[in-house]
Write a structure and sequence with these properties.
This protein is mainly alpha-helical and 416 residues long. The chain contains 14 helices and 2 strands. It starts with 27 loop residues before the first helix and ends in a 13-residue tail after the last strand.
């Protein structure tokens, strides 16, 4: 709370839906070209060096980002149009994989020069053995298994992270709902305090997991400057926020079973943060990743010598295409192995915060509906044979122990 005693941020301050970025990034490649041009024009060696590093390191997580689909995007995905190439995306992926593709193309060119210029002059014949393809035929299944297992393991991590985030949507709302239901009327200010801290759980978790301070922007209108500063300086912000919520629950006059239910919800969110820590801190065993990568590079490096006798100079484009596909498949597994870099965490932060705010916003109106639904029904009392559904809606009279007509929300009973 602020020094004047007001809760920072109205409940309805952020009820407008957040703007949603397009699923397809169309400007990234052109923006990068513009940055290169500016760096070359200004002779800015520092920026040029940074752009080269980004090119080599392939730091383009937006290419592999996964955001929620709209109805139009699902329709596009289910149609034949999904097979159409996306030039901008293709160029950016090719840019990321270009060092390996260029290496294999260079090896293929060397193979062609060796076969046409050196072997006719007595150099060892290493490109004209049809049986040279046999080792690759026998070992290709192992490469396939390595790539499939690697990609499936990465997808399992992605799905676990996405499932955990889905549950993160639920538990803050559950904490607030239980607080609304159980806290005494004269301690409603504690409910609002719990709601404020529950609304920042997701943003503090993602800031902690990603080590990125940009997520704190989703907390500024919920906490006072002093509270936000305290939370930012904690070594583990989400656990600090959970401690504050537990302290607020402790101050409420609750029965032991009521407090236990709320603490159970708090503990469930604690476990989700622990799962996020495990996924973000521990990769797939590096020995597996190294073996798959080395195996793939060795395979595509020596494959041109087996292909030359079959395809000649066409080996160069064939190997460039094959390398792009195989390395691209391996790269997908690498990118989704760290799911918190490709999942739209900012949108999730806004969505989880919005869910808590809506729960608080519906608080009063829900109480009015409860009063209406539970009001005493009109008509004769039950002792005189009258029956009513919720809200005072009369039921049709029974005939032979059975309701004559069904009523919405009421199960038809059968007599003995």
């Amino acid at each position: 709370m602020t020094s004047s005693g007001e809760v920072p941020g109205s409940i309805t301050d952020h009820l407008q839906p957040a703007s949603r970025p397009s699923r397809r990034t169309k400007t990234g490649f052109s923006d990068q070209i513009q940055r290169w041009r500016r760096a070359l024009r200004d002779k800015d060696k520092a920026n040029l060096k940074e752009e080269c590093r980004l090119l080599i390191d392939c730091e383009t997580p937006e290419l592999f980002s996964d955001s929620g689909f709209t109805k139009a995007e699902w329709t596009y995905l289910h149609s034949w149009k999904r097979h159409l190439p996306e030039p901008v995306v293709f160029l950016r992926v090719l840019q990321c994989l270009s060092p390996i593709v260029l290496w294999v193309s260079a090896v293929s060119t060397f193979c062609g020069i060796y076969a046409t210029q050196l072997e006719p002059h007595g150099w060892p014949n290493i490109t004209d053995h049809p049986s040279f393809v046999t080792p690759f035929t026998l070992s290709s299944f192992a490469l396939s298994l390595l790539l499939v297992f690697r990609t499936n393991s990465s997808y399992g991590r992605w799905w676990e992270a996405r499932t955990a985030i889905g549950r993160m949507f639920n538990w803050p709302r559950i904490i607030v709902r239980l607080s609304i239901a159980y806290f005494p009327k004269d301690q409603e200010y504690l409910v609002r305090a719990v709601g404020r801290w529950a609304a920042v759980l997701a943003a503090s978790t993602f800031a902690y997991i990603r080590g990125d301070g940009s997520y704190w922007v989703h907390t500024e209108n919920m906490l006072s400057p002093e509270e936000l500063q305290w939370l930012k300086t904690r070594e583990q912000p989400p656990f600090a926020a959970l401690l504050v919520i537990s302290g607020l629950v402790k101050r409420a006059r609750l029965d032991s079973w009521q407090r236990a239910q709320i603490e159970q919800a708090i503990s469930e969110f604690d476990l989700l943060v622990g799962a996020a820590e495990r996924i973000s801190r521990q990769p797939i065993p590096l020995a597996y990743t190294r073996m798959a990568s080395r195996y793939l590079i060795v395979f595509v490096t020596f494959l041109p010598f087996a292909f030359w006798s079959l395809f000649g100079w066409v080996t160069i484009p064939i190997m460039a295409t094959l390398t792009f596909l195989l390395v691209g498949l391996e790269n997908i597994g690498i990118q989704i192995e760290e799911p918190y870099t490709v999942l739209p965490l900012h949108r999730f932060s806004v969505g989880i915060k919005r869910g808590v705010e809506l729960t608080l916003a519906h608080w009063r109106t829900a109480e009015e509906v409860v009063e209406w639904a539970a009001r005493p029904p009109p008509g004769p009392p039950a002792s005189e044979g009258g029956e009513w559904a919720a809200g005072g809606v009369p039921l049709p009279p029974r005939r032979n122990g059975m309701h004559r007509e069904g009523v919405v929300g009421v199960t038809v009973e059968e007599g003995p």
